[in-house]
Each structure stands twice: as structure tokens, then as C-alpha cells.
Amino acid sequence: MEKTLEKISHPNIIIVGIAGCSRSGKSILARELVDQYKNLTDINREYVNICASIHLDKYFNLSKINKNVVKTNKGNRYGNWEFPGALNWDDFLNDIKQKIKELTKKIKNCTSIPNMKGILFIEGFLLFSPILSNPDKANYLNLFDYYIYICLDKKIAKERRMNTTTVYNDYYDYILWPEHIKYCSKYIDFFKAQKKNNKQILIIDGNKQYKPKFVAVSILKWINAFKSCKIPYNEIYNQLFISFDKQITLLEKNFK
After folding, report:
1. The whole model's pTM is what?
2. What share of the chain is helix, strand, coil (3-state, %, to 5)?
3. Would you state the pLDDT for residue 112?
């Protein structure tokens, strides 16, 4: 890759990353953020589309998954969908670069509105994986202006998964959840380091039944994406934005 992602980023593009386990609500939140951004911004209609989202789930590599077979405690063998090697990271990163270029072009064409900003929401279950050791890929972790992680207890996560896209019980208990803990538990130290670098962190308790619309509005208000809003989001806003220490405690409980 000829340029690092940091170097092709535009100062007027806000990049928000959303991570969490399977069925934590990442995709729903990303879609809601785009919808609410378009509904709440007071910019001209022709420029309301300076907002986009990218979903990591679209970059699975089936050949790698089928080669990485794991035997469970019941003796069953499954291709592993849960580790970083199951994903086409190069395609993912190239698409991020392309999306940034598209948003940058729209901003440059928006001459009637000074200091126009664009927003790119990126979501995925291994989005902040520290295993990306290649220098170019590692730089991608510094691309985000805002880091969001949605915590979810195993019991609730499993119930939601089994009620939507079902997997075998032993796959979930022996592969899916342990792999989630293995890779994402590293986020604790990662978020602490990013906080010291003055990055913005939000860890959400996904076990609570928040309305996605209000969560999205609260997050958009957090990143100053619009000036005013009549939606009564304040109660949820106050519940979401607890102290960073409490957020880390929530994360630590999630990974026990």
C-alpha cells in the first residue's frame, strides 16, 4: 500500500469506529448514526450525503476460514470465522482509503459551506484488533477520532445470536466466544493508551435496552455533528457518558 491511511485522511473528516461482539448492535448503531446524521444536520440537502459507513463483516475470506479448522470439545470440526485471519484486511483498508477520497472530494466541492465536515462510521467485531502488526495496517488504528465499544454479556450475546443467525452450541462456546475474549480483551490496554493520547473513547453497556435512535443522537451530539436537536436524548446521554474509569470497569467485567 503506497500511503498510510493516516496520510490520506482529511482534517475535515471525522472517523468513528464501532466494535463489539457478535450481536452487540454494531451494525444497527452504524446505520442509525448515518440516518440520524442526515435527519439532524442543517446543511443543504445536496450535501447531506457527506456521511458514509463501512462494515467489516463484508470482508470475510472463505478460503482462509475453511483452512483454519478448529476441533471443539465435542469432536466437531468447524472453519473459524472469529479470528483476524478470517478477514480480507487489505481489501478493507483499501476501501477505507477510497471512501475517505470520496468524502474529501465532496467536501472540496462544497464551496458554499465553509469548514464543511464529513463523517465516516466504520464497524466490525475485530475493528481495533492489535494483531495488525504490519506498519501500514498498524497505522490504521490511529486513524480513528472516536472509538466506541459495545459490551455484551455472553448469555445475552448467545441468546441474540441463536435467535438470528444460528450456529452450533459447541461452535459458539468453544470457538466464537473464546476467540472474542482472546482478541478483544486486548482492547482494555489499547483504550487506556488511546485515552492518554487524548483520543475519545466511549464504552457502552449493550445489555441495556436503549433505543438505537436516542443512542445515535447522543453520540452525534458527543462528536458535535449538529448544532441543535429536539429529540429528548438527554437521559440516555447521561447514562452513556459515565467516567472513563467506570467504562474500563464495565469492559473488564465483560471479558471475565
Report:
1. 0.92
2. 50, 15, 35
3. 73
